Amino acid sequence: MAKLEVLENKKLVLKNVLKKEVRSIDMEAIDNEIQKFGNKLALLKVQTFGPLVIKFCGINITEDGNMTADYDLMIQAHDYKQYKNEFVIEDKHECRHCAYIRFEGRPDEINYAHSKLDLHFYENDLESSGVVYTICIQETDDYVVMDLFKPVVML
Which of 1, 72, 118, 134 could cysteine-pair with 54, CB 3.0–4.6 Å? Predict the structure, then answer.
């Protein structure tokens, strides 16, 4: 079992970004939204580069007590500006001052990386905005490599 090491002051930079904003969805529905995003990219024959980036933006609690979540699905693409009618486009998406951790292992154990990040924030009196970026480096049914970036609120 590999040790999870948290690094500080990391910066996430994406260029030529296509973004799909997914708002107020059931937290278990994100996999379906990711699949739809990938299908649309394939249908449009978008030439992407780099891995998929999933930005967890936060949780909402509805009046009847149900929890939903907000996400941004992002990918870097060549000729990204031609897709401005299909997606939100950004020339550059940058997030500075992040705590970072790389997770390699079984997909059902990714929660350990999230817990380690949360513990690091607690032990070091860091404040989080609640945002977490997950970069899917490698993914199969029984093994994943994912980078997590969690922005630190600078006071």
Answer: 134
